[in-house]
Amino acid sequence: MTPASGRTNALPLPVLAAxxxxxxxxxxxxxxxxxxxxxVDAISLVTMRILLSALGYxxxxxxxxxxxxxxxxxxxxxxxFGFLAGPINQGFFVYGLSRSKASHAALLYALTPVGVxxxxxxxxxxxxxxxxxxxxxxxxGGVVVLLLGRGxxxxxxxxxxxxxxxxxxxxxxxxxxxxxxxAIEHGGLRTAGWSLVAGALWCVPLAPFVVQLDAFLAAPxxxxxxxxxxxxxxxxxxxxLWNYALSRTEASxxxxxxxxxxxxxxxxxxxxxxxxxxxxxxxxxxxxxxxVRLAQR
Length: 297
Hints:
Layout: H1 13-36, H2 42-63, H3 75-97, H4 102-109, H5 112-122, H6 130-148, H7 152-156, H8 159-178, H9 180-186, H10 188-203, H11 207-210, H12 213-217, H13 221-246, H14 251-255, H15 261-273, H16 279-295
């Protein structure tokens, strides 16, 4: 940007704090979802997650000033977008993780910036610039180093689970690119809340048939706490932070921070699960940070 435009290259501090906070929460999300699906059926888990997060948003929005419901003329849009954000994104993610690994989920979500940038450019919402492309390329190169540094066998992983997670990534790309206009108009909190409430409406008819409440209550405390993490921190906190950032800057500048998720997940696994940190994290993490920085310029 030129000085005459009144804007600078650096992200505003509140936006930077939001995307970094979302990155930290996402690192824990991969671990929490993987832990919970070890003891709770994936479909039951994701249905409870969506319904509980929707109830949380209803309570939160009821306590705040402003509209509780979106404009009536947009209800059809919210129902469609809620299906994408809830059953598709969260459902595919949790089900895929039940058959894959947390590290694979974090690495696949690193594809987000490429998809968001290409989609936004195709829709004429952002300009194609060499700096942005180079930054995304360098960051993704760091992800490849992190992935292949653990060996090709580890990189391939369980195919079925990874394919479902990839479907969740595609849904997340569309969420990120398409929700920005609504986030600008209504704010990040209401955009996230209305989307999850709309997503919950799709789950209500199936809930009596798929929710296994007795099995969940009998599960270890770690699984129950993991569901609490997914509801409160991920579906409510992380989604709201992500949409807040989208309301303040271009979608591709927000999405590039998804490249930090594999690094953050590896650090979280080291801190919580005592997994070793190898050379691939240092080299790959350095490239990711460099790419994120380049993409912001």
